[in-house]
Amino acid sequence: QVQLVESGGGLVQPGGSLRLSCAASGFAFNRYAMRWVRQAPGKGLEWISDINAGGTSTSYTDSVKGRFTISRDNGKNTLYLQMNSLKPEDTSVYFCTRVAYSDSERGQGTQVTVSS
């Protein structure tokens, strides 16, 4: 079955960096566009970034442009999110998902807390 396992979250000071990973299994990873979304306490899901199946095209929500970078390693079935210049408002649980199934599929998430 499809499994998405996010990792790499933690507590970081404002201005710091984290690199999230999403280990995928149970499907042909290299055939699917992938997505990062996040959910802050008491708020709905927020789209962060997409990457196409080949890793050649990316898109970002305005609030993270220039700070976050999405990437993938199809040989390792892994999706990444490099997060730099983190802000308190980036505090959320971060999830990865296939774009085609983003309404119904995601992993357990990884908590990112940005605080001094």
Structural overview:
The structure is a single chain. The chain is mainly β and 116 residues long. It has no helices and ten strands. It has strands at residues 3-7, 10-12, 18-25, 34-39, 45-51, 58-60, 68-73, 78-83, 92-98, 110-114. The strands form two sheets. A six-stranded mixed β-sheet has the order 2-10-9-4-5-6, with no helix packed on it. The protein has a four-stranded antiparallel β-sheet with strand order 1-3-8-7, with no helix packed on it. The N and C termini lie far apart (40 Å). The mean pLDDT is 96.
Sheet-strand content, in percent, reads: over 45%
What is the CA–CA distance across the termini? 40 Å
Mean pLDDT: 96
Compute the number of strand runs: 10
Number of helices: 0
**Helical proportion, percent range:** under 10%
Outline type: globular
Strand order of the largest sheet: 2-10-9-4-5-6
Indicate the structural class. Answer: mainly beta
SSE arrangement, N to C: EEEEEEEEEE
The biggest beta sheet is recorded as: 6 strands, mixed
Q: How many whole angstroms does the radius of gyration measure?
A: 13 Å
Task: List low-pLDDT spans.
Answer: none
